[in-house]
């Protein structure tokens, strides 16, 4: 092969190689952009996982902590035949509902009552007859607290379906989100500890004792 022929063949091959070299720089930039996009995507997915993992239970906590300087948080310890759980009550957000619950608890009204309703999404108690048709003497008006929703762990007042102002002593605890009840039933608390105990409750299990403790007044 002549020198001229070899140079000619080399000249034809070299531009492709050089061109490949020139294209490598945009390729690296493209890969960098792809890596940045992937990093952002992973970050978004991680954030979504945190939000979803916390669920609306976390959202409820966020809402009731929105103005910590003005929200009083009382506590109610509920001893049952399946164990003990602790509820946080919000007299600042639902003053009449919390006052009614605490009055009954301090009088020993709830001690010894059974959980008469247990479903996959809710448990309910507070009826002296154990049938779901009874209650205490005084009804209270429906009280809707902004930011409190019927999500897992929420504590709300039961009532007759045909009377929004018929709540008295029966209350429920949400096991699985039921936000369709919002603005129709009064939420006044949240289970802070022992949701696993709530999940284990069965019809006929007893509330042995309910003890309430007042929170600190805002300064």
Structural features:
219 residues; alpha+beta; Cyclophilin; 2 domains; 8-stranded antiparallel β-sheet; disordered N terminus
Helices, strands, pairings?
Elements: H1 3-64, E1 74-80, E2 83-89, H2 95-106, E3 115-118, E4 122-125, E5 154-157, E6 171-174, E7 187-193, H3 195-200, E8 207-213
Antiparallel strand pairs: 1-2, 1-8, 2-7, 3-4, 4-6, 5-6, 5-7
Structure write-up:
- The chain is of the alpha+beta class.
- It has two domains: 1-64; 74-213, Cyclophilin (Beta Barrel), CATH 2.40.100.10.
- 37% of the residues lie in helices and 20% in strands.
- It has helices spanning 3-64, 95-106, 195-200, and strands at 74-80, 83-89, 115-118, 122-125, 154-157, 171-174, 187-193, 207-213.
- The protein has an eight-stranded antiparallel sheet with strand order 3-4-6-5-7-2-1-8, with helices on both faces.
- A hairpin with a 2-residue loop joins strand 1 and strand 2 (83-89).
- It is globular.
Largest sheet: 8 strands, antiparallel
As a percent range, the share of helical residues equals 25-40%
Q: Please count the beta strands (DSSP E, at least 2 residues each).
A: 8
Q: Would you tell me the structural class of the helices and strands?
A: alpha+beta
Q: What CATH first level of the largest domain would be assigned? A: Mainly Beta
Compute the average pLDDT: 80
CATH level 4 superfamily of the largest domain:
Cyclophilin-like
* Integer count of domains: 2
The gyration radius over C-alpha positions equals: 31 Å
Question: How is the largest sheet built, in terms of strand order?
Answer: 3-4-6-5-7-2-1-8
């Amino acid at each position: 092969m002549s020198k001229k022929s070899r140079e000619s063949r080399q000249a034809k091959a070299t531009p492709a190689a050089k061109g490949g070299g020139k294209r490598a720089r945009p390729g690296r930039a493209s890969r960098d952009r792809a890596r940045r996009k992937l990093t952002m995507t992973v970050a978004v997915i991680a954030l979504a996982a945190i939000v979803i993992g916390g669920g609306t239970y976390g959202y409820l906590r966020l809402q009731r902590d929105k103005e910590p300087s003005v929200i009083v948080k009382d506590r109610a310890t509920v001893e049952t035949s399946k164990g003990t759980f602790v509820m946080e009550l919000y007299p600042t957000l639902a003053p009449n509902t919390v006052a009614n619950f605490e009055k009954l608890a301090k009088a020993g009204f709830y001690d010894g009552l059974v959980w008469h309703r247990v479903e996959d999404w809710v448990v309910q108690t507070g009826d002296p007859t154990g049938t779901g048709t009874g209650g205490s003497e005084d009804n209270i008006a429906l009280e809707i607290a902004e930011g409190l929703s019927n999500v897992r762990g929420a504590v709300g007042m039961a009532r007759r379906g045909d009377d929004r102002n018929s709540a008295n002593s029966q209350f429920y605890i949400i096991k699985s989100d039921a936000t369709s009840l919002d603005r129709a039933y009064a939420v006044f608390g949240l289970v802070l500890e022992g949701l696993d105990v709530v999940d284990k409750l069965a019809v006929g299990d007893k509330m042995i004792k309910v003890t309430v403790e007042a929170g600190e007044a805002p300064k």
